[in-house]
Structure formats: C-alpha cells, structure tokens
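Example 5.3 — Xylose isomerase
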Amino acid sequence: MNRRTFLGSTAAFAATTLFPFPLSARDGKRGYKLGLQLFSVNEDMNRDPLATLREVKAMGYEDFEVYGFDPARGTFYGRPATEFRMMLDDLGLSASSGHFGFSPLLEAGEPDMDRFVDQCIAGAETLGLRYITWPWMAPEQRTLDTFRALPAKLNAIGARVKEAGLGFAYHNHGFEFEDHGGDTGYDLILRETDPDLVKLQMDMYWVMHGGRTTPKALVAAHPGRFVMWHIKDMDKVSRDYTELGNGSIDYRKVLPDPVASGLEFYYLEQGGNFTHSPLRSAADSAEYFQRHLRKRIG
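Solution (predicted structure tokens):
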C-alpha cells in the first residue's frame, strides 16, 4: 500500500467509526464544501499538521482557510508550502483562502507592502488558494484616520492580487462597527473600496456581537460582495466564542441567502473558549452544522 492509499484509507476508517454523517465530496446542490478556519485548531496544526488534517477530515471538513504564513521562509505551520500542499493533496483536501499578516505593514512604504503581497501570492499559488484575505488590525491602528486611509491601500493590494489571478478579501471583526462621528470603519470600507478588487469575508459572530446591523441587512445593502462567511457561535453569558448550537446566535434565522451574498466559500470557526478541546469543539460544531444548517446554504 502506497502512502496516498494509506492516508486515504486511514481517514475513511476514522470518519465511519467516529462520525455518523455521510461525507460527500460536495456540500449541497451549489457545490459548497464544509470548511474550517484552521485557526480553530491552531495549536494542533503547529504541533502536527498531518495528524490534525486527518482528524478534521474525519469530522467531515473538506476545505480550509489557513493561518500562520511565514513570508520569510515561505512556510505554513512550519512546513514549506510545497510540503503542506502535498499533505492536502494526499488527503483529498483543499484550501481556498488564507489569512495573511498585513497589519504590521499598514504604515510601511509601498515597496515593502508590494514585496509582502508578492510573497503572499507565491504562498497562495503553491497551496491553490482562491483568496488572499486581510484578517486583522492591531488595537492602536483602529482609528478614524486609519480607516480613512485604508480603502486606498486595500484597492492597491486587490489590484496586485487580481493581476496575479487571485481574489483579495477583507475580514471584519467588531471594531469596524464602532462609531467614529457618524461613520464606522466598515462604512468607509464598503463605500470606498472597489467591489471588483476588494471582496468581503463576513464574520457573522462579529456582526452580531457589534449589534449595529445583521448579516441579512448587509447582504441586502451590498449584494454580491460577501464571497466568504465565517460561522461561529456566541456564548450566552460571556459573549465569547462557543461551539455551534451552544450559544445565542440562531443561524437558522441569521444566515443570509448565499446567492444574494455572492457566497463562494464558508468556514466554521472557534477561536477559543473551548468546552473540552479545540478538536472536540471542531467536531461538535461540524455535527451541529450538518444536522441543522447545511441544507439552508444549499
């Protein structure tokens, strides 16, 4: 038995023994795969990426958003991009987006940002990603002046990424919805970025946490821009993250129409506050999603 056959057989056996749901190659009529943002199991991925990928595949996950790219070394989870791609290929898995560390270069000059974008493009192309995603800004960067300058930077990055044949997206947290004298940072991003260059990855937990709008309202106002979703639940008491179905967000009512959204990929995520362990939480969320939400996306 060769290595590829062994990996596939091992994952298939684990899936049938641990999880009762059929693991189809595609998720629903529109072809969505069950996705996981790998930050959810970040410590496990950094400790043993191959074993972790086997485990999450057994839970039903087929597609991933990666985190933790090292541009100087060209590595993901401490492994060269080519080696990590081989792990995915051998297991029959895919990665469609990556969160890349743009925020430290927010005040850098254009040459430094362009160099970093090119490194991200090289890593993304090796993994076969469809999107390069801006995921975060540090607390000291979340000012009105920053948000006023940000759309031009996002447009410039988006143009460079598009020229390489990839997509570029911005991922929201809650701070984008804070009021700055009548405008929010997200208002500025929506209004002043080019929809052809800058797509949006909607983190529904943070939209609901902010309380100023809803996923359905955002999609109604800006149809077609939200090409990716993050789906995670909110603890009923602490408002921290929690497993799907264990919190206060009723996604049976909250999920927007995927066609109106422009949805291409979605990822379940839990960044902390695990009831047992990150892997157990990923399994519990996958089970809830498959039982209650999968058909609503189509």
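Remark. The CA atoms of residues 177 and 212 lie 7 Å apart.
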